[in-house]
Amino acid sequence: AAAQHLVQNTQMHQVLRSGKPILIDLLSNRAGTFVVSRIPLRDEAGEVIGALGIVLFDQASHNLQPLIAKFAQMQHDLHEAQRQLADKKAASAHGSRQSRYTFASFVGSSPAAVEVKRQARRAAQSGSPVLLLGETGTGKELLAHAIHAASGRASGPFVSVNIAAVPDTLLEAEFFGVAPGAYTGAERKGRVGKFKLADGGTLFLDEIGDMPPGLQAKLLRALQEGEIEPLGSNQIVRFDARVIAATSRDLPALVREGRFREDLYYRLNVLPIRVPPLRERRSDIPALVETIGEDMAHRGVSPPELTADALALLAAQQWRGNIRELRNVLEQAALRSDASVLDAEQMEAVLRQSGLASVQPALPPEPQAPDSGALLRPLQEQIAELEQRAIAAALQATRGNKLAASRLLGVSRATLYNRLNPDAADRAP
């Protein structure tokens, strides 16, 4: 068939021109999604004389749903990769420092995770200083990147300073820069400070609670006036940077002890956000384990697969180091164990080897929400079932210690014994 005899607005023309088939393609229109194959037709001499299209109509959208879903996900991943590549090219062209994370990078759907992301998104719409409070390893730096990426300064630089990692004698130069020849050994061309590098973007001050008192007054002035004075210079340098600070320390306590300036604290504490510890968002641990495993795989480390009871054991731990500690344990599990699948017993051994002071037993599974039929029963019967579940959880948490379990439940030991053996209580005189 000649090209003009082919159905228009299809890929049949491409098959006719190239002589190559297009096999197992998905075609979507108002009628639905169909599987289409297009093959060239050749004469005895091998010349392409036409093209044939084959469409599978027999419930393709139902029978091939996994294929269709995977195709859609691949299309989405392709578009996302193209967008990220375009962003990186733009950042490279501007020569600026860009944020590495977005709110999607803060993994978790627990109420605590959803709330902190809600607060951070609101903070991104403001230009006021943000103070991120939380234990080490909770993801404060990641949130700082995400706030910058969602703000009106996203196209500007994101500059980070870990105050605890810089010697006190070098912090002032790190912040404000150095004029050429300011002191012996100074760079001939001078040095631009982090405040100026962050001009037009965001300056992230990590571990602000470790800032030496002598520099706090200069930092306060820089934040109030929007100007700095490089070391060895008499010239004032203006800057426009949004400040996000973070600390794992108790700033109000440091203020009371006179180790942190009260006026600087109030300057930074405009939009405080408490980042929850991992033990307050235990339901996020499976998703975090999967995300950390993917990152390990990208770095060439084969992550172990965990059974349900191994995940339950991880969810029961206190995680004083939070997500950073969880990552460390998973990396140790990958390096210490030859098994591709780890159960609770093997994971407990890894936890002990990693240096945990005490390994907590796995929590009992949360009961599923009952349907309306299960609720239409005598109330006394439902209360008795709930009591038994609570008692079982308390006994498991205390390793069978009934006195400790009674204290956890807020009842006397006699009451606990009665609930454990209701028949004996009914027979008592």
Describe this structure in words.
The protein has 429 residues and is α/β, with parallel strands linked by helices. Helix content is 46%, strand content 15%. It contains 19 helices and 14 strands. A five-stranded parallel β-sheet has the order 5-8-11-4-12. It has a three-stranded antiparallel β-sheet with strand order 1-2-3. Strands 6-7 form a two-stranded antiparallel ribbon. α4 packs across α5 (140-149), α11 crosses α13 (322-336) and α12 packs parallel to α14. The protein is flat and about 95 Å long. Residues 90-96 and 425-429 have low confidence and may be disordered.
Keywords, separated by commas or semicolons:
429 residues, alpha/beta, three-stranded antiparallel β-sheet, 19 helices, 46% helix, 15% strand, disordered C terminus
SSE layout and pairing:
Blueprint: H1 12-18, E1 22-29, E2 32-42, E3 48-56, H2 60-63, H3 65-94, H4 111-124, E4 130-133, H5 140-149, E5 158-162, H6 168-176, E6 177-178, E7 191-192, H7 194-197, E8 202-206, H8 213-225, E9 227-228, E10 237-238, E11 242-247, H9 251-256, H10 262-268, E12 271-274, H11 285-298, E13 305-306, H12 308-315, H13 322-336, E14 341-342, H14 344-353, H15 372-375, H16 379-397, H17 402-409, H18 413-420, H19 422-427
Parallel strand pairs: 4-11, 4-12, 5-8, 8-11, 13-14
Antiparallel strand pairs: 1-2, 2-3, 6-7, 9-10
